[in-house]
Write a structure and sequence with these properties.
186 residues; alpha+beta; 2 domains; two-stranded antiparallel ribbon; 3 helices
């Protein structure tokens, strides 16, 4: 459950002014969030910004997310430390357009717009922004993936060179040259 200062009741906020916030979770909360996101560590985390009224009932959240995260390298699993500094923008609209059609829903052009909630959990917005900002494939300096070849016993594995679209034609041309056939290219 989020602390009280992280939950904002939007209907109770004064419409004539901004509402500033500055979240800096303690070590225990950072450790819980790190575990939830599959991180090795979350050394620093700050989410600071403001809620600005827009129109009669809408709100705009403008914030900066700062974090130092430690993730496992995708190649070696060694710890990789990354500093994140990301702007965050969300728009909470009282009259959010409904998606057309029930079978398929396309991503809206404005991906910052969301339906206006009764309460806004700033901790949840912070966690979502952090999850979206994380590097997808963190790599330790100097780590290389190399080539992996897998095949059942007794079968030659397919290599990257074999998978090239014209590799088979080049091999055929080379065999024809070796057999003394004239070069089809000319």
């Amino acid at each position: 459950m989020a602390p009280r200062d992280e939950i904002l009741h939007l209907a109770r906020l004064p419409r004539g002014s901004e509402a500033a916030f500055d979240l800096r979770p303690e070590a225990e909360a950072r450790a819980a969030l790190a575990a939830e996101l599959g991180l090795i560590g979350l050394r620093k985390l700050r989410f600071a910004g403001r809620l600005v009224p827009e129109g009669k009932r809408d709100w705009r959240l403008e914030a900066e997310l700062g974090a130092t995260v430690v993730q496992p390298c995708v190649v070696t699993t060694e710890p990789v430390t990354t500093r994140l500094d990301e702007p965050v923008l969300r728009r909470y609209l009282a009259e959010m357009p409904e998606p057309e059609g029930a079978d398929e829903v396309e991503m809206p052009e404005d991906d910052t717009a969301e339906p206006l909630p009764a309460t806004l959990d700033l901790g949840a917005v912070m966690a979502e922004a952090l999850a979206l900002a994380l590097p997808l494939y963190p790599r330790a300096p100097g780590s290389e993936l190399g080539e992996a070849a897998f095949a059942p016993p007794g079968v030659a594995p397919l290599t990257d060179e074999d998978a090239k679209p014209l590799a088979g034609l080049a091999a055929l041309r080379d065999r024809l040259k070796d057999a003394g056939e004239p070069d089809p290219e000319g």
